[in-house]
Design brief:
two-stranded antiparallel ribbon, mainly alpha
């Protein structure tokens, strides 16, 4: 099972134009989920697992921002996408060697 010291097989930058990529990497291996028989399995991964995990985190962060959970939105303004992206990146765990 992968550990926090690995981030495989995610593409690793820099990009052709020198930018650092990826901006964010979601959990994509051994995701604990339900199976067709009504039980649970951890044999699930790839982008099919990473996309809903990251999407769910983005949705929760968006609502928490709207609700002024962080104390930085007292007027209840809609957050800009760049604000949510910056918050995700600023609070992400940096994998070793990436």
């Amino acid at each position: 099972m992968p550990t926090r010291s690995t981030c495989r097989p995610t593409s690793q930058g820099p990009a052709a134009d020198g930018r650092i990529k990826p901006d964010l990497c979601g959990v994509f291996d051994y995701v604990y989920t339900t199976d067709a028989g009504g039980g649970y399995t951890s044999i699930f991964g790839g982008t099919s697992a990473a996309c809903p995990m990251v999407g769910g985190c983005v949705g929760l962060l968006y609502v928490m921002y709207l609700d002024n959970h962080f104390g930085n939105n007292p007027s209840g303004d809609t957050p800009q996408p760049a604000t949510i992206k910056a918050m995700l990146i600023a609070t992400a765990y940096k994998y070793a060697g990436v």
